[in-house]
Each structure stands twice: as C-alpha cells, then as structure tokens.
Amino acid sequence: MRSAAALLALALLAAAPVRAQMPGAVAPGARIRVWLTPLPRKVEGSAVPQQLRGSLVSLTADSITVRIHPQSAPVTLARRGVWRIDVSHGVPSRVESAARAGLGGAVVGAFYAPIIDYDRRYFRNTGEAAWKGAAYGAAYGAALGAIFPRERWRRVRRPAQLTVGAPPAGKGVTVGIRIGM
Length: 181
What we know:
Blueprint: H1 2-21, E1 31-36, E2 51-59, E3 63-67, E4 75-78, E5 82-88, H2 94-116, H3 126-147, E6 153-155, E7 161-165, E8 174-178
Antiparallel strand pairs: 1-2, 1-5, 2-3, 3-4, 5-6, 7-8
C-alpha cells in the first residue's frame, strides 16, 4: 500500500510540470515550420512530408493554427496530423553566416581532401592534403554562406504526457505515458 501511494505521489509530481509546459512551448506570432504527417501512397510510392511555414496563431493540446500569409485566413491543423514543429531563430547576418559555413567547409575539406588525394597526385602527404583541403573548404563555405544566408530552425520538443488513473478493481495504480505530438 505504501509503495502504491509513493508511486502515485511521484507520478503526480512528475505530471504537474509536464502539463504546465505543454501548450506554451512557442509564443503566438512566432515564425514556425510545420511538418505534416506523411500519408502512405498507393500508386506513386512514398512522399516527402509536406511543410507549412507561417506565423503561429494558437497552439492547444489538440490543434495548431497557423497563418501562412498575412492576407490569408488561418489554417487549423489537428495535432495528430502534425509530425514535427520547428521555430525560426531568424536569418543570421552575412558575416555570421559566412563564419559558420566557413567552419563547416573547413571541417569537410580537411576530412575529404586526403581521401580524394589517395594516390598523392596533388599533395605531398596526408597532412598537407588536410591543411589545404581545410583552407579551400573554408574559403568556399565562407563565400557560399555570405551569399546565401539560411534561416535557422530549432525543433520544438513536446514533453511526454503522463496520465495517472486508478484501475477498475481499486487495487494498485495505473500509469500511462504518451510520447509524441
């Protein structure tokens, strides 16, 4: 009996913060990207999940309302039809974008240059290939990052929902966990 009461108290303590966090993960007005649940196709094969981008109007436990264009009516979607939600963190400045892309290009160049030059046709040794590959990759990545800055997205994670109930017989405690959108 004591263990059942302790388990019930623990479950109620764990469920309180989860319920408080559920709907307020993203503020209304934020720019979001919504991925819809892919539907199985019978003729054409599998399809890429559809995306909707716009500003969040409202978010409840059962639905999400998005305004896709400022002059359009809001679109309401059932949460079970939403596969993923991302929130925008804006487009970085050209300098920041160039720095990030340059760093990524340097890593890729340092990794792939020694692999591509396996027969030592262009570089004397692996170290030189990695160093020059990093330099070329950084320059290429920085140029692309400065010309084409990309919007940054972060996935909105919804915590697990914890439900607590008493079984019909009156003995013990039933705990159910639902993870997902």
